[in-house]
Amino acid sequence: MPQSDQSHHQQRPVSELPSSEASVLARLIKQWGNELGFAQIGICDVDLSAEEPKFQAWLDKQYHGEMAYMESHGMMRARPAELHTGTTRVISARMNYLPPQAGFATSLKAPSVGYISRYAGGRDYHKMMRNGLKKLGQKIQSHLQALGYAAPNYRPFVDSAPALERPLANKAGLGWTGKHSLLLNPNAGSWFFLGELFIDIALPLDIAIEEACGSCVACIKSCPTDAIIEPYIVDARRCISYLTIELQGAIPEEFRPLIGNRIYGCDDCQLVCPVNAKAPLTEQTDFHTRANLINPDLLELFSWDEAKFLKITEGSPIRRLGHHRWLRNIAIAIGNAPTSEPLRQALQLKKQCKEIDAMVLEHIDWALAQHQMQLEQGQSALTRKTQRVIKAVEKGLVRDA
Ligand code: B12
Ligand code: SF4
Ligand code: SF4
User: Fold this and answer.
1) Which atom of ligand 2 is nearest to the CA of 268?
2) What are phi and psi of 115, to 5 degrees?
3) Does the active-site annotation cover 159?
């Protein structure tokens, strides 16, 4: 028998790990997680059967819109062991992303500026978090092998995998589901990403945190497009995040005036949430907003050709949008800005540009029509809801870092 096979033979399967060793390992996993930059790690089992009917109801109502990937894997999303065979535990991790000087109110207030969701101003989180989770898996493996156990079967996932990440994180004790449907941590608010390591070791389970929104309904009342149609349920088709990031084609006209200057995602439901008053800033400099995306001037952004767009957004989640949809979103924001000669000229000029397609052209025409209407009926102003969100931020309800 070759040497390697022989040594393999001597290793015990991880299923034989005694619970005392599993408890020690769980503590170490949390410590390693923190060392790798995660704000918190929790552990849950793979039973999401209670979520299945709620998830199915959401799909049945077509709330996922064009996001075909939400239904293409069926109930696998609620069954981690089907996604990665052998999984018995999910190690759920969260990583804070709130950048310093987020300046929410400043950019929402300035209609000539494009508002970019604060999760997206820095480096794309997917790869970064997946690498961190992979390293966590390797540490677990080394630890177990040093104790004479075989390698565990593990796999990291972040966001794009067909898994219900929030219910998992909830079970793992990382937070409760807020009425905006995001995960909220009592000490850290909601400005964090989620990721998981699926694994086959019987680690001790953490305890879920009880829902604590109480009678608050601030997020529901402040959503610019009424996308939170009832507590805990978001109709993605109405959500600005979906409209500006996920939707491929034209943005339905009814939503365009409500989008304001939000050109990539939306943070409003988190901006009015009182739990975010305690939210810490990210420790990851990679998530800091890039200089050219801090209060970016709409005209400047609109002037980028495709090459410039691709260059500037390299390594950023914004790149996935593509140049056409970038222009589509900016055209809407320009259409919502108080009319001015430079804005009207920029729109006219872009119409002549070879790079634009029929979809973008239609949005530019819409923006021009908005400006024409303003010339006839008076200048546009921020919607009442946006004014309220700005006031809430300025009052210090959330940390306007
Ligand atoms: C699809 C998706 C979207 C869609 C749909 C959003 C949605 N609410 O489903 C769109 C494009 C709109 C979106 C927007 C955003 N997203 Co998103 N999105 C996802 C994704 C890929 C899947 C979410 C999902 O499974 N939705 C399906 C529905 C059915 O799930 P659900 O909302 O959790 O539904 C549960 C509740 O409705 C619950 N429920 C039903 N009835 C009741 C009743 C009670 C009492 C309770 C407690 C619960 C409950 O049961 C359902 C099933 O479990 C996840 C990543 C992932 N793989 O999980 C990221 C994710 C949820 N998104 C994230 C983020 C950051 C955002 C944005 C903030 C981005 C932005 N700034 O623009 C916005 C926020 C909008 C919002 N309020 O939700 C983060 C959230 C982190 C956190 N702290 O929770 C995630 C986890 C990505 C990540 N890896 O970090 N997103
Ligand atoms: S992200 Fe914006 S549009 Fe979407 S639910 Fe929250 S407030 Fe509404
Ligand atoms: S704004 Fe209020 S209701 Fe909405 S998630 Fe925060 S605490 Fe819950």
Assistant:
1) 7
2) -90, 120
3) yes
Q: Ligand 2 in contact with 91 (CB < 6 A)?
A: no
Angle at 223 between CA 176 and CA 68, to 5 degrees: 75
Number of H helices, E strands in the chain: 18, 10
Kindly report the CA angle at 282 between 271 and 114, in degrees rounded to 5?
Answer: 50
Which amino acid residue places its CA nearest to atom 55 of ligand 1? 159
400 pLDDT band, cuts 50/70/90, is confident
* Residues contacting 12, CB < 8 A, separation 6+: 148, 149, 150
Beta strands in 75-218 (DSSP E): 89-96, 115-116, 155-157, 176-177, 183-184, 192-199
Ligand nearest to the CA of 269: 2
Distance 347 CA to ligand 2 centre (A): 27
Instruction: Say yes or no to pLDDT of 1 above 50.
Output: no
- Model pTM greater than 0.85? yes
For 261-316, the DSSP string reads TEEE---HHHHT-GGGGGPPPPS-GGGSPPGGGSS-BHHHHHH--HHHHHHHTTTS
**For atom 81 of ligand 1, which residue has the closest CA?**
193
Give the model confidence (pLDDT) of 286-317 as tens digits: 999 999 999 999 999 999 999 999 999 999 99
Could you tell me the distance, in angstroms and rounded to a whole number, from the CA of residue 9 to the centre of ligand 3?
54
Tokens 């006839």 found at: 376
pLDDT for 258-270, tens place per residue?
Answer: 999 999 999 999 9
Ligand 2 close to Cβ of residue 180 (< 6 A)? yes
CA-closest residue to ligand 3 atom 6: 273
Give φ, ψ of 288 to 5 degrees.
Answer: -65, 145
Pocket around ligand 1: residues whose beta carbon is below 6 Å from it?
51, 54-55, 58, 67, 70, 117, 119, 158-159, 163-167, 177, 180-183, 190, 192-194, 211, 232-234, 236, 239, 241-242, 246, 265-267, 269
**Which residue out of 45, 159, 365, 400 is catalytically annotated?**
159
Q: Is 258 annotated as a binding residue?
A: no
Ligand 1 atom nearest to 242, measured from its CA: 11
- CA dihedral angle for residue 390, residue 393, residue 395, residue 399, rounded to 10 degrees: -170
